[in-house]
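It is time I had a proper look at our fold encoding. Can you supply me with one protein entry, sequence and fold together? It will help me judge whether the discrete encoding reads sensibly. Leave the record below and I will have a look:
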Amino acid sequence: MITIIAGSNRKGNNSNLIAELYKRTLLDLGIDNVKLINLENMPLDILHPGMYSEENEWIENVKKEYLFSTDKFIFILPEYNGTFPGAVKLFIDALSSKDAEKTFYGKKAALVGISAGKFGNWLGLEHFGVVMNYLKINVFHQKVSISDLWKYMNDEVGFEDEKTEEYIKRQLEGFIKF
């Protein structure tokens, strides 16, 4: 199974749009066991001092439904203040505080950066790669950085840029074999 994580908890964020594009592309490539986690749905009560020791129903459900059974992750990471969103770090911390070996260790990840700026969250992808290494997740070498996101937004289809869509397809073809 491949689990896509749309890395922003901001309502109406563009990470979800790109995550859906990735899901459609995987389906087109014949991969039908794909799940999507939208961090917009992450509950506010997840951040509290007991998150590392107490049981949280949402965390336990996410682990069981999405993480324990997945082999691969795709992280869609928007640029927030020159790196990835704190909501993603909170998500990782909450899910790795217990059962990190079962949740993350030895799995594989593809990284995708998005930004309205010129660099497609390249720096955030590098930073996030360090977090992945700490969790013993093998990061696929081919990262996709989608810059100038607003140029490619289309009210009818959401996102439209043939060149970027080709990069995404090539990344996924390699990631499937990884």
